[in-house]
Specification:
By secondary structure, the chain is an alpha+beta fold. About 25% of the residues lie in helices and about 45% in strands.
Length: about 300
Amino acid sequence: MKNKILTTVCLLSGLTTFGQINMKDSTAQVITYWEKGDKQNYLVTAEKIKIKGTDTASREKTTYNVQITVLSKSEKSYTIEWLYKDIKSNSQNAKVQKLLNINKDMKVIFKTDELGTFIEVTNWKEIKDYIQKTTSILRKDFQGIPEMDNVLKQIEGIYSTKEAIESVSIKDIQQFHTFHGAKYKLGEVLEEKLKVPNIIGTEPFDSDLTIYLDEINEKDNNFIIRATQIVNKEQLTNAMFNYFTTMAKNMKVDPPKREDLKALGNETLTASRIHGTGWVVYSVQTTTITSDNVTNIEERIIEIQ
């Protein structure tokens, strides 16, 4: 996101003070003023809601803690560690509880540029091996349950490559760094076309992005930035149709008709309150996926502790 809005990027690597808010021109810039050894703890709450018509069909809630540590700092980059701890769920299903613990005590180490813009995961091979080790243990527990073996294969798939990990498996990290590396003016709406990951096909989706600075709180040295991202509906429909057609073929059942896929939509709303030091105070991201009369909502809240 931040790499695309080139006109707003402000290279300020030479600054030594926390000058992110400028009330004279009503602007705020998101830059990481961090030092090696800095640590912050966050609580993450993730909720999945499925609605059929007007009825809530299911609601799943997961919470976990993240300890963020700045491992190193240079003139051009930061190396940061996210450590996942204390994963809990409201599910009473023992299988779900075991699956959640796949990420327990997992470390993600990644790099940002000097402004805090996400660059890459550096320990992806370690993460892949960690996941494969934990899924191997779970396979013994789930022996004789074919559907659970399929679930474990899906989990292994989204941690199998560097690209998969960065696009699908670390959505919380991507959310945290959504607005870093850019300068925003109060009330000014920025618009951009972006490519977003397509986890059910080979080609990424086109999407329309709008982003704006909504509030400046000079007294507390923080500000709120909001973004809306909408995936191209035609591309989404085509991808879903191809996916369901392939599934039907593999299962030897009648494939769907394209007109059966109605009212498909994928919209993500992100809002973050960010401190002048570049640490996120509170962030919420809501993704709403609609199909005919079914709505799936995924909401993730990140709050500093």
